[in-house]
């Protein structure tokens, strides 16, 4: 069995991403970990945290080996300007994009088997002059894909029909074309990346009470319901639209493999409340495996041991499981 090789981008150098990666490097991990970042800045952070690290330049020609605690393989990508703990710098915006570009390229080239991303600040990147709405959208552009954002805990998966757009733009973005594409991708990925034989997908309505038969908005009866009916007739086990205020009840969650929310803050507050420290972000529809932490940069916690590393640990473990499942499937086991 090939050892999974995981590319990690720690994210903003001034935030908690470097801290979490350096702490992770002290732990036993079944995969090989390769961090794509500014090694000088990471070494300075390790010294600040008094964490011993044996730095190893990454050699892609070597076969992958399980991570050894206290070591860290790296691909050095220089950042312009100083790194000050807790103080984000727009100067780092090009560096952040470069870490993602290199890590994605190595994943697409099968040098690495999966990508795990740390937190970045969208505002900092935009302030640096680079339009950026989020990892999900940017990775879709890099890979010429149509990604679907899904967050997950051990008990719940929530995918999104729309991602990082203003709430006022959501109704016009809910189209039959978008919903059809999203549900088909979600269905495909649940089967081929998570091993769900016949996945059940429950779909939230857009409006309160799923529109109350059109009295609280027409999108649910004019767009969402006909799209779901058509996909169900194609053989996809999809149900809805269901009222979002009751779809997350325990007995409903238990009979679903994933819930599709219409917009970011319809589904994610529930998921994060249910399991913030073990929740992760998974991007579906990409030609690579990508998982991520579900939290932000937490600049106020940077340079300390106060940030919980449960989400990063879960993102790594999920990436390993997805790689192993993909390899098993490819070999027919």
List the helices and strands and how they pair.
Blueprint: E1 5-9, H1 17-24, E2 32-37, H2 39-49, E3 54-57, E4 71-76, H3 93-108, E5 114-117, H4 122-127, H5 135-142, E6 148-152, E7 157-160, H6 170-173, H7 176-192, E8 200-204, H8 219-233, E9 237-242, H9 250-254, E10 258-261, H10 264-275, E11 280-284, E12 290-293, H11 310-330
Parallel strand pairs: 1-2, 1-5, 2-4, 3-4, 5-12, 7-10, 8-9, 8-10
Antiparallel strand pairs: 6-7, 6-11, 11-12
Low-confidence stretches: none
The CATH H-level homologous superfamily of the largest domain: Isopropylmalate Dehydrogenase
Order of helices and strands: EHEHEEHEHHEEHHEHEHEHEEH
Number of helices, counting only DSSP H or I runs of 4 residues or more: 11
Structural class by SSE content: alpha/beta
The shape, in one word, is: globular
- Looking at the overall shape, the CATH architecture of the largest domain is 3-Layer(aba) Sandwich
For the record, the CATH class of the largest domain is: Alpha Beta
Please report the total strand number as a whole number.
Answer: 12
**Percent in strands:** 15-25%
Mean pLDDT: 95
Major sheet, described briefly?
12 strands, mixed
Question: Would you write up a description of this structure?
Answer:
The protein has 333 residues and is of the alpha/beta class. The protein has 2 domains: 193 residues, 3-Layer(aba) Sandwich (Isopropylmalate Dehydrogenase), CATH 3.40.718; 133 residues, Isopropylmalate Dehydrogenase. It has a 12-stranded mixed β-sheet with strand order 3-4-2-1-5-12-11-6-7-10-8-9. Helix 7 packs across helix 8. It is globular and about 60 Å long. The N and C termini lie close together (11 Å).
């Amino acid at each position: 069995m090939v050892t999974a090789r995981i590319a990690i981008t720690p994210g903003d150098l001034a935030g908690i991403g470097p801290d979490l990666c350096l702490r992770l490097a002290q732990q036993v991990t079944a995969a090989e970990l390769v961090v794509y970042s500014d090694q000088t800045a990471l070494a300075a952070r390790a010294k600040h945290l008094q964490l011993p690290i044996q730095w190893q330049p990454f050699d892609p020609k070597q076969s992958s080996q399980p991570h050894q605690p206290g070591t860290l393989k790296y691909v050095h990508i220089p950042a312009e300007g100083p790194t000050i703990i807790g103080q984000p710098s727009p100067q780092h915006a090009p560096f952040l994009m470069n870490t993602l570009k290199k890590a994605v390229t190595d994943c697409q080239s099968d040098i690495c088997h999966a990508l795990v991303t740390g937190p970045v600040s969208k505002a900092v990147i935009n302030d640096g002059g680079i339009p950026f709405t989020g990892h999900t959208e940017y990775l879709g552009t890099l890979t010429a894909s149509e990604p679907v954002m899904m967050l997950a805990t051990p008990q719940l998966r929530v995918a999104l029909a729309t991602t990082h757009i203003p709430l006022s733009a959501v109704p016009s973005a809910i189209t039959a074309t978008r919903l059809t594409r999203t549900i088909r991708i979600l269905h495909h990925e649940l089967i081929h990346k998570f091993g769900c034989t016949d996945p059940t997908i429950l779909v939230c309505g857009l409006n309160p009470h799923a529109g109350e038969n059109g009295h609280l908005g027409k999108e649910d009866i004019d767009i969402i319901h006909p799209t779901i009916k058509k996909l169900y007739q194609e053989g996809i086990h999809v149900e809805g639209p269901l009222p979002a205020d009751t779809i997350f009840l325990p007995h409903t969650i238990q009979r679903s493999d994933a819930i599709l929310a219409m917009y970011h803050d319809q589904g994610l507050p529930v998921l994060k409340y249910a399991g913030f420290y073990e929740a992760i972000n998974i991007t579906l529809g990409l030609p690579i495996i990508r998982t991520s932490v579900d939290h932000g940069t937490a600049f106020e916690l940077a340079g300390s041991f106060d940030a919980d590393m449960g989400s990063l640990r879960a993102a790594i473990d999920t990436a390993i499981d997805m790689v192993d499942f993909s390899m098993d499937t490819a070999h027919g086991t």
